[in-house]
Amino acid sequence: MKPFYKTQSNYFPLLSIVVFATLFFGSFCYIQYIKIIPFPDFTQESSNSTNIQLQEAKKHDERSVSPLEECDLFTGEWSFESGSSHSHPLYNEEDCEFLTEMVTCLKNGRPDSLYQKWRWQPTDCYLPKFEAKSLLDKLRGKRLMFVGDSINLNQMLSMVCMVQFVIPPKKKSFSYASYTTVFKIEDYNATIEFYWAPFLVESNADPPTMRDGTAVPLLKLESISKHGDNWKNVDYLIFNTYIWWRYPTMKVLRGYFYDGAADYVNVDQNVAYEAALKSWAKWVEENVDPNQTSVFFSSMSPTHIKSSDRKNTNGVKCWNETAPIPNRSTFNVGTNQRLLATAVKVIQSMKLPVHFLNITRLSEYRKDAHTSIFAAPGGKLLTQEQKSDPVRYADCLHWCLPGLPDTWNELLYTIMHKT
Ligand SMILES: *[C@@H]1O[C@H](CO)[C@@H](O)[C@H](O)[C@H]1NC(C)=O
Ligand SMILES: *[C@@H]1O[C@H](CO)[C@@H](O)[C@H](O)[C@H]1NC(C)=O
Ligand SMILES: *[C@@H]1O[C@H](CO)[C@@H](O)[C@H](O)[C@H]1NC(C)=O
Ligand SMILES: *[C@@H]1O[C@H](CO)[C@@H](O)[C@H](O)[C@H]1NC(C)=O
Ligand SMILES: *[C@@H]1O[C@H](CO)[C@@H](O)[C@H](O)[C@H]1NC(C)=O
Ligand SMILES: *[C@@H]1O[C@H](CO)[C@@H](O)[C@H](O)[C@H]1NC(C)=O
């Protein structure tokens, strides 16, 4: 085992709506890095803004500012931004034409917008101010790809909105194919992409017609190269897989998908998860050139389905929640800790350094940030009648945009500028 980095470590409009809806609907469904990935002083980098931001932070309060390379970006608190100096949200919902109804909570009728105004404050340092141009400079001539389930699509859309306003109208495009969604930035010869592979390995949930989450998933734990062929030579790869692992035992296929469910075995969820991640790790080690590509793995995006875990016995899932769980409180929202530990273990055992985006805990606080009844399952907004039945209809998996995934991207941005 290698030392573990101390990481904090053209749509046809209608089709697109249906397709996105399908992607999302189907999906109700970690930086102790491996060794300190050396990162140059920001002053040698093209990112002036980072230094400015860190210095300002020093002036404003007595918080001791650790050099970013020592800072655990994922331990901290949510700080509410009020007044004129607020920096969040990083964009306005109505200004980002690429958002779908799945995430436009205000447009869909959400009465409060407080969830947009929280800033993540690590305990030991300040996050650099997000600069869209600086991210685009990093991406010049490059491809960045999110790979995984609809939570990663949620994050991809967030990143598109975080940068798109600095690109002139005719110099950007958004296109969808059944597996890959691509945002192209012409002048930079750059792309921000999403690749659908909810289990990373092959499954019967992969084809577009199977993404509604109604079929019991069948997995092929060793099969990854069919998907993986599409990830080769990408410069930034951000993987996730969690919300589809929702059965205590998973069905693992021994034959071929077209044989139907005839030849499968039931495998303990955690055993299957580990096997899938090992296939993924092997693919990464065999196919990724660490001199070209930075690899990230996002830890579990939490759900807020059991409000009883949050001492709010009258609550209904995440419905009607308008504030995060208070800073530093003790709580348990039901994240699958076994799977989380398994992901950490597999990543620690890898020879190739993988940046662990440890977003789970910081996101667990954000019971206020889900799309809830202001989502559009199956591409349709909920009817008034459905809205009045949050037990059944509230989506407490996905997140409103602007919102929490923007913070994940700020963390990703910070690490991208370190490496
Ligand atoms: C940093 O900022 C200064 C002044 O704002 C500018 O002249 C310089 O080109 C910038 N450096 C980089 C690397 O962007
Ligand atoms: C992720 O962050 C949480 C919150 O700070 C921390 O408790 C946990 O140990 C971290 N996990 C890893 C693997 O770094
Ligand atoms: C956490 O503390 C910050 C100030 O340190 C405060 O602005 C914020 O409201 C607190 N967060 C929550 C969720 O109460
Ligand atoms: C554009 O970027 C791709 C990699 O994403 C690269 O292969 C290609 O050579 C670049 N084209 C130009 C004109 O720079
Ligand atoms: C990465 O670059 C270093 C130094 O340029 C070189 O020694 C090493 O062999 C390269 N690694 C790979 C996998 O190409
Ligand atoms: C929603 O929450 C607010 C306080 O946050 C409360 O006053 C209101 O009664 C709640 N609505 C319902 C229908 O429970």
Summarize the structure.
The protein has 419 residues and is an alpha/beta fold. Helices cover 27% and strands 16% of the residues. The protein has one domain.
Describe what this molecule looks like in 3D:
Belongs to the PC-esterase family. TBL subfamily. This is Trichome birefringence-like N-terminal domain-containing protein. It is a single-pass membrane protein. It is built from 11 helices and 15 strands. By secondary structure, the protein is an alpha/beta fold. The chain has one domain. The chain has a 7-stranded mixed β-sheet with strand order 4-5-6-3-9-12-13, with helices on one face. The chain has a 4-stranded mixed β-sheet with strand order 7-8-10-11. Strands 1-2 form a two-stranded antiparallel sheet. Helix 4 crosses helix 11 (404-418) and helix 6 runs parallel beside helix 7 (337-348). The longest helix is centred in the middle third of the chain and has 19 residues, at 269-287. Bound molecules: 2-acetamido-2-deoxy-beta-D-glucopyranose (NAG) (6 copies). One 2-acetamido-2-deoxy-beta-D-glucopyranose is lined by residues 320, 322.
